[in-house]
Amino acid sequence: MSGLLGIEMGRRALRIEEADPKGLVRESYRIDGITLGECRSILVDWALSLPVDAPMRDALRSLLAHYGTDAPDHPMTSVMTEGLLTPDTPRRKGGRAARVAG
Predict the structure, then answer these.
(1) Which of 13, 27, 89, 100 has its CA 20 to 30 A from that of 66?
(2) Average confidence (pLDDT) over 70-91
(3) How many CB atoms lie within 10 A of CB 91?
(4) CA–CA dist 8, 61 (Å, integer)
(5) What 3-state class would DSSP assign to 89?
(6) Which of 6, 86, 31 is nearest to 39 (CA)?
């Protein structure tokens, strides 16, 4: 089922402590004047801090529901929404056939 902006709605709601174990996203919402670039950097750090088997999309959905609802214009809300729009698996573009002419 699709939701707003075609984002597939969550499969599992995570507790905020699970979704943001180091509190990086929480702290980003507390920084006055934080920029979009700073939020992107924080989100990369957040993603790297999650356990390998963590359901990242579910974590993003939980964080958006918790923080984004009250701060829809915050740059972190935009960055997390963009994160949900990114394809799950990268698709190969090219390969040997694309590099070698006939």
Answers:
(1) 89
(2) 86
(3) 5
(4) 10
(5) coil
(6) 31
Query: Burial of 80 by CB count in 10 Å (0-12 exposed, 13-18 middle, 19+ buried)?
Result: buried
Rounded CA gap, 77 and 71, in Å? 7
User: What pLDDT digit, counting tens, does each position of 91-100 carry?
Assistant: 666 667 666 6
What is the rounded distance in angstroms from the CA atom of residue 61 to the CA atom of residue 84?
8
Helix (H) or strand (E) holding 80: helix 75-85
Cα separation, 70 vs 45, whole angstroms = 23
Q: pLDDT tens, 20-64? A: 999 999 999 999 999 999 999 999 999 999 988 889 999 999 999
- The answer to whether the beta carbons of residues 60 and 80 sit under 8 Å apart is yes
State the burial class of residue 57 (Cβ atoms within 10 Å of its Cβ: 0-12, 13-18, 19+).
middle
